[in-house]
Amino acid sequence: MKKFLRTRIHIGVVLLLASSVGAWAWFSNGEIRRHPAGVPVQVRIAIPTQISAGSIFVAQDQRYFPSRGIDAAIQPFALGKDALSSVLQGKADLAVLADTPFMLAVMKGEQIAAITTIFSSRTAIAVVARKDRGIVTAEDLAGKRVGTIAGTNAQYFLDALLLSTGVDRATLQVKEVKPNAMAKALQDDDVDAVTAWNPELARLESAGQGRYAMIYGKDAFVYRFVLVAKQDYISRHAEEVRKVLRAIEDGVQFIQTESSAAKVIIGRAISLEPDLLARSFDPKDFFLTLGQALLLSLSEQSRWAIGAGFVQAKAAPNYLDFIRYEALESVVPSAVKIIR
After folding, report:
1. For residue range 181-238, what is the model confidence (pLDDT) as tens digits?
2. Is residue 182 within 8 Å of residue 204, measured between CB atoms?
3. Helix, strand, coil % (nearest 5) of the chain?
4. Which domains does the chain have, with CATH numbers?
5. DSSP assignment, residue 39?
6. Rounded to whole angstroms, how far apart are CA atoms 245 and 72?
7. Which residues pair with 226 in a beta bridge?
8. In the 8-state DSSP scheme, what is residue 93?
9. How far apart are the C-alpha atoms of 76 and 69, rounded to whole Å?
10. Is the dihedral of CA 244, 248, 253, 259 positive or negative?
11. Could you give the CA distance from residue 301 to residue 103 in angstroms, rounded to a whole number?
């Protein structure tokens, strides 16, 4: 009888352990693959405090992440390239950043991939220039001092703008100026112009009170931001990535249908008054997509990076190897438009 009881107890313990392991599904390295039903999975998302992350701010505010089974731990940064650094250092799972720092990271050998584009605009970045320095158009930048940030789309935007207008970049004195120092650099006459994006762009335009020229270069550049992760994270956490995309798509739909409320939410997130945000806020700039335009832009930017000596590589990679479209295709099938 005692032997029978011991056997029953032993079987019960084994079944309990088996069910626990099955429910949590541990990886060999200790990471949790699945959580019990109803328990949100934590995903760390690093984002720039910019209008480009608007759909994520809305998804967080409207609690779309938990409704999709995600406990989103948002990490704010001033720049998208800093958000990417958090992913590369293992401190975040996903990052939102411009296509330029994504391209530079790929060219330097980082095993990352773009999951979707989340924002695309032609009016969210501009050169802000002092009119009293004789700058009204892009052609007037020749021989002037311009502040920008190396390794970002702001630098690429400046070069693309100069190229499109025939201005020799060698005539410019290009200086490194961080976003929070742009207003002071202009006021103190350290530079004649800066490349700025929202929220700084709107603040400078408002504070300038007509003293600054706003040079957009709409035909030369698209201000594009992508959601990226390490390739192995995407492979091992496919369901979490899909859930995050569903929450972001919920945020996109809110922006499209409730634009006034969305402006308030995004403005609060980036510390910009709704009336200032309204100058460049366009609901159509927020959408999920993976299009051929992204691949063409990445290849073009690669040639720029090689020519400028920013990378050691001599040729652009096949960027299809750095795109993971499966999650987006399962969430918004019509959003995947790349030729593959």
Report:
1. 999 999 999 999 999 998 899 999 888 888 999 999 888 899 999 999 999 999 999 9
2. yes
3. 50, 20, 30
4. 41-120+224-337 (3.40.190.10), 125-215 (3.40.190.10)
5. P
6. 12
7. 97, 117
8. S
9. 21
10. positive
11. 7
